[in-house]
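Support request, please re-run this one:
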Amino acid sequence: MTKTKELEVYTEYCEISDEGSTARRLTGFQGRVVTAIAVAMSLYHIYVLGFFPVTPWILYTVHLGLATILILFLYPGRNKEKTASIKTLDYILACLMLVSGIYIILEMEELIYRVGISPTGPDLLVGVILILLVLETTRRTSGKTLPVLAIIFLLYAKYGNYLSGAIGHRGYSWERLISYTTGMDAIFSVPLGASASFVFLFILFSAFLNASGAGKFFIDFSLGATGSARGGPAKTAVVASALFGTVSGNSTANVVSTGAFTIPLMKKIGYSPRFSGAVESVASTGGQIMPPILGSAAFIMAQLIGVPYMDIVKASIIPALLYFAAVFIMIDLEAARLGLKGLPKSSLPQPIEALKKSGHLMIPLLVLIYVLAIMNASPIKAAIWAIATTLIVSAFRKESRMGWKDILQSLSKGAESALGMIAACATAGIIIGVLNLTGSGLKFASVVISLSGDSLPIALVLTMLASIILGMGLPTTAAYLITAAVVAPALVQMGVSPMAAHMFVFFFACLSAITPPVALAAFAGAGIAKAKPMEVAVTSVKLGIVAFIVPFMFVYGPTLLWEGSMLKIILTAITALIGTYSLACAIQGWFFGGTANLFLRLILGLSSLMLIKPGSLTDYLGIGLLLVAIALRVFIFKKQTEVTTAHDAQMEKAT
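Re-run finished. Output below.
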């Protein structure tokens, strides 16, 4: 097998994350100190969660405290700051976090009775420090959007008495607000609890899996399986991102990790920079809805809804299948329209050889699924088993064997990769705390219902917009937690099942990563592709259009969420896949080997909506419309298509 230059470049890029691109690259003594803190953080979580349980408040405090110190050391206060060393202010803030954490742990037994009721002066001082540090670390890692939103909620809690109507409340003093915010119902509530337990361990598992060479295996296998097909590198991006997304909890990190390799290949065979960046962005975002982990949100969703974890996995299968099928088909149609070919087979790895060489690295994922699905064990136990299995199976071959240096690096990388998520979850806790304190969660739901006029379709659109806005710029876990707390109750009040309501907001919270104006995954793809960010974002929405439609469909047809008889579920999946093909043809303007005019595209679009929506009547109508489109294409529009196809392809290439 001859390695291409692009294949050799992979090793350099597979370790890059969205966080690593903005962090300081510390060396010398400072670098060793930060690495030691990160390694200690990972070992602490493994020990406490797997072998020696401690009080949750202690776990959460250590979790947040170590993450805050690492963020202050690794992330500069200003993006333009060029220094590669830790500044004096960062040391001071880290000391404040250390003192605050020690105070919380030492005062824990009495503090739990004072929080939100009768705080002391030191309680309030520590509370102010903690809130400010949480907001600052979130700003450094995730941008200004979430901290600003949290500040707005804090001001709402303080001055809600000046508001009238459904969202008004009696208002709270700064003392009670600060104290309550630093308690187990706010900063230390469900988001940080999820972060401190299974989410952190899954990110750590991802770091170990990547260090063993699994990331390169995903790329090699995907490239070998799809690289020589029509538009092959784009299909490689879809397959690799789906595999990588099973363990990645951040769509932007997924884009940077796989996109640094796949986007140049897409451009090389003829895809435009705009389209190349969009393909990787959409595929990487889809990795967050990919079972069995769903960007770690599956476990949180199961906890919030109160259903078994496997119910969440089953509910996500058909929507994820439709999502990736749509992207795959659109890529193929675009390649057909432009006359693009794949890469030469001689320059690609052989899938069978990749499996023989590195297929054993899939065993940890299989163990993870087995422990979760068959043994019905907790996510924490499953993650620890998966990490241990990675260490064992990596020793099977010399190429994947991990020495002490690799293990320490994995422990450090895992902790560093989780920092942005931890800060975002803590800030999400502030928002949830305000909702708990003021009781405004149900009030916001009432506002949505009122604005919709008790119309479910309008309420769904409003919920979609709210989920996209609230999820902008956030990691998957934090985005879902906020949207689930703020807008999901509205749908539940209107009779939507909790599963469908939470899946609905989860989908759109994920899609915020590719939706303008703040589309971080699309912008990351644009940076690698050297394309205009907003053009990549718009194209990403076009490629991911099925994901914007399917949530509406499964609210009305729960069969898409694996509810009902097996025969009905299978038929629903088949007709929905056919509908996905019709929709892709309608959007791409390419059908049965030629250009589809506007009339054909309208028929195909209507057919797709009928087929994606569960129900016998709609399926019959959809199939009928599709047959009409085929007949028109074959017998009436064939000559016209032959004339326009070559011209359209030339114009697209020129653009």
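The first strand starts at residue 590 and ends at 591. The longest helix spans residues 309-338.
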